[in-house]
Amino acid sequence: MAAAEALTKPATGSIMDHIDTTTIISLLAVLLILFSSYAVSLKALAPSTAPSLRILFIWHAFDFLIHSIFEGSFLYNCFFTSAPFDAGTHHPALITNFLGRSDRVFGAAYGDNWATKLWMVYAQADKRWAGADLTVISLELLTVFGAGPLAAWICYGIAKQDWRVSFWMVVLATGELYGGFMTFAPEWLTGNLNLDGSNFMFMWVYLVFFNMLWVFLPLYAMWVSFQDMGNAFMVRNASLAKQKSK
Known about the structure:
The chain is an all-alpha fold. The protein has one domain (2-6, 16-230). The chain contains seven helices and two strands, in the order αααββαααα. The chain has a two-stranded antiparallel sheet. The longest helix has 46 residues, at 200-245. The chain crosses the membrane at residues 24-45, 57-76, 136-158, 165-184, 204-226. It is found in: Membrane. Its main location: membrane.
């Protein structure tokens, strides 16, 4: 209950007020995943690999690990961490008949493991991640079990110089952008009821930086893929034109 109560405390403007051990470990874990993705790229890709493809390999490896580890842990807590509904302490809106249960509440706020601590830190900026928001869960099911494995396959395809990679990068990037829109559009339409951007940490680190990664990098992947597919079609068209001229 202490974790859940933390969400109701007013935020202060100092960034240091929102940095604790869990925050530091979580940020270091993100950096470790990034460096691990870079290290894998050094092993999997030839030194002559184009910088754009190396960047996209690292991005998709990072994407796969974040989806699988962090967001996978969010789903785990939604499905397997719960508490009996208490009308005296729980808001009635928490009952959504998730998993057909109207007598229990689900999510990180009701557990005590490394993942619940991580998500309760992020939930200070977006309260939906403390519980079992149905829209977020629906998107994360697609993200963890669809986008994550596809990102891993894209890494494999880049390493093997598979021509299909460009198409699948566009597919994944489109899904990532749509998922981001569907995550935040409900908040924009309701006055950001669940969001707290009252201080630098919540606004610029949690809400802006970590979410905008999944905007700019997918757009970059689309741009590189567009160029690759454009070049392929130009070669094909030139070949067809040559055949017609004979």
